[in-house]
Design a protein that fits this description.
- This protein is of the alpha+beta class and 273 residues long.
- The protein has one domain.
- The protein contains 6 helices and 12 strands.
- Strands 7-8-9-10-11-1-2-3-4-5-6-12 form a 12-stranded mixed sheet, with helices on one face.
- It is globular.
Length: 273
């Protein structure tokens, strides 16, 4: 570790150890669009048009507000941002973004608020499930020296993933097993020595400035230390409390009901338990 990096780490460590410390990291996100079997029936022009319409949902900006132990990751409020309406549901289906994510390192809590089929949920993430492997690679992101870490995690069950899985019913067992996991690549900086990161990710010896999952890239474009306008980082309480696996089971069941209804042309309604 060179002398300049050592001095920077000492400086940020002193700042972070102060009682009233707070920081904000701004992330530009980009999610690729998986058309599945629908894409076979679409022209290149139709796909391009669809991507343009979905761009506000696929490329939102998120803000991670954090102190020494707590953080909240939520979408930036912008004038003209997607609101309610029919497009909102489809946009969220493609983006699979969910709602704000709260983390508390001291209590090992990770909670996400989200809405699914008109019902609010408070989802408990398993903060210990990420087993990071520290790699040798390093690179600069802005003015920060970052180090690489990798992990492998089960793919989250979303409406699109459940729908696609049903399309691959004839795949081999090997293909199905490989399709259940995704590689995660994170770039963290010890210059900001907090174990926070975008979405549900964290647990590294420095703030995660870039993170890549199977379909989404989250890149930090700006870091503000001790902003003038302080944000209250509060633990969410609204919504039905469920574990991540319980919520994904609900998504799987409801999505299969929807798929069967659409494919079979049935008139039955989707139950809201």
């Amino acid at each position: 570790m060179n002398k300049i990096l050592y001095i920077l780490i000492i400086f940020f460590s002193t700042t972070i150890n102060s009682q009233d410390f707070q920081g904000q990291a701004f992330y530009k996100t980009q999610t690729s669009m998986d058309f599945g079997s629908w894409g076979d029936r679409m022209s290149a022009e139709q796909k391009k048009s669809m991507k343009e319409r979905m761009k506000p949902f696929l490329e939102p900006v998120y803000i991670l507000t954090f102190d020494k132990t707590k953080s909240i990751y939520q979408q930036e409020e912008r004038l003209g941002a997607p609101g309610s309406g029919g497009g909102r549901g489809w946009g969220r289906m493609w983006a699979s973004s969910g709602g704000p994510v709260y983390k508390n390192i001291a209590t090992k809590k990770s909670l996400q608020t989200t809405e699914f089929m008109g019902k609010k949920f408070l989802i408990a993430n398993d903060s210990n499930k990420i087993k990071w492997v520290i790699e040798k690679e390093q690179k600069m992101i802005g003015n920060y020296l970052c180090f690489k870490a990798t992990a492998q995690l089960p793919k989250p069950k979303t409406m699109t993933s459940v729908w696609r899985k049903a399309e691959k019913e004839n795949d081999s067992i090997k293909d199905k097993i490989e399709d259940e996991y995704q590689d995660i690549i994170a770039w963290y900086t010890p210059q900001i020595p907090v174990s926070h990161g975008p979405a549900e990710f964290g647990g590294l010896p420095g703030l995660i400035l870039e993170l890549t999952t199977e379909r989404t890239i989250m890149l930090c474009t700006k870091v503000v230390m001790n902003p003038e306008r302080r944000i209250q980082i509060s633990e969410p309480t609204k919504g039905e409390f469920v574990s991540r696996s319980e919520f994904e089971n609900i998504v799987e069941v409801k999505t299969k009901e929807m798929r069967d209804m659409w494919r079979g042309g049935r008139s039955k309604s989707i139950r809201k338990n």
